[in-house]
Structures are given as C-alpha cells and as structure tokens.
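Predict structure. Chain length: 244.
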Amino acid sequence: MRWRPRLLPAEPPELLVYDDPTPCPYLEGRQARMPLRVPTRMLSAQEFGERLRAGDRRQGVLLYRTRCASCRACEPIRIEVERFAANKTQRRIYRRGLEQLDIEVGPPELAPEKVALYNRHKHGRALSPDGQDIDEQGYRAFLVDTCCDSFEIRYRHAGKLVGVAVVDRSDDALSAVYFYFDPDFEAFSPGVFSILKQLELCRAWGLRYLYLGLYIAECPSMAYKARYLPHERLLDGRWQRVEG
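Prediction complete.
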C-alpha cells in the first residue's frame, strides 16, 4: 500500500509528509527513519521550545526526529549556558574572531552572495557528493523558510561575507540550525567561534540552553559537539548531563 500523508495530533496539529526509510546521511551502510512533519501554522516560542525539549530538529518548514528501527547513534545535544566553561583553546578562538570579524544579526534572507558562499563551503569541504550546486529556490527552502522564530548571524572579514549561521529561538533556548563558511577561513575555526557567539547571545537574552542538533560519536562531522562541556544529551527520553 502506498504511504499517504496524515494529520498528527499536536498543538498546533502537524501534517506528516514523509515517513519512508532512507539511507543514513551520517553513517554509511545504515538505514535511517526521520519522519518529516509540517506544523499547520507558525509555532510560538513555547510550542517550539516543547519540540526542542522532545528532540526535534528543523529544516526549512519541516520538523523531524530520528525514529530508526535498529540504531540509536543520534543523540540530541544541548549546552546549559550558565554551566558551560570554555576551555583555553575556545577562548583564544573567540577572542581572535571578535578582533577579526564584523558580526550582523538579522532575519534569514535570500542573497546571491549567500548562495555562492554556501556552494563554496559544500565543495570546499567535500560535502556535496553529487557535485551539484544549490540554487536560489533550494537555498530559500532550506535556510530561509521557517516554521518558528528564526534569524541569521552574518560574519564578515574586511567587508566580505565569510560565514552565516542560521539559528532558531524558543522560549528558553537558541537552536543552531546550520552554519556554512568560506573554506579559506578554516584556520580561524569559524564553527567554534559561531557556537561561542550563540552562547553569548543566549546569555545576553536570558536563555537557558543552546541546542546543537545531533551528536553522533561515530561521525566525525557530528562528534565535535562533545567538546563543549558540560553538556546534556537526550538518552532514553531523559536529558542527562555529561561532564567530560
């Protein structure tokens, strides 16, 4: 029988638009199940916060949460802002970034320079297996369209756009959605700097958590998140603290 979309009970209700097994995007040779849901209206800060606490992630207007049959490698991870203590290397990276970069915060917007930088990032870091560039329509669907309160942080060096972080905001947290940067600036550790900047925004806005998405120990591109200590991971339905 062909699978059909269906309405799910939630506040607000959500439309389940896709729920087929797919090849895992993180671990080669494994099968993943990440049902995709669309809220029937924009989420309030409290409603989105409830979804973050349950382990949801956002991509465009879609929400998803892993439901893999035989794998539990994906662990939602968050930092409790007041407990986090940056290490010596992280502090050095942050100081250097503040000295070198101009920072802008604003709504997610489509711009040719962002699309070009996104594609440069994907190719420079070998993150585009099919070799295809994203176009403006794809960029908008992925990084501009949203179902909650979202914004972007733009990083510039001598006027040139070198990084963009897309971030969501709930009642008590920020959630790091996606970050891309100019591969020529990799030596500046822009990913580390961007996370530390988001933690600073959490402190300035009185927010308790920064959600970092999924931690996957076996996937190098996702395992780095464990370096931010202490942090919490959602394990067996409970957020559990990891000290080190």
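Summary: The CA atoms of residues 124 and 183 lie 6 Å apart.
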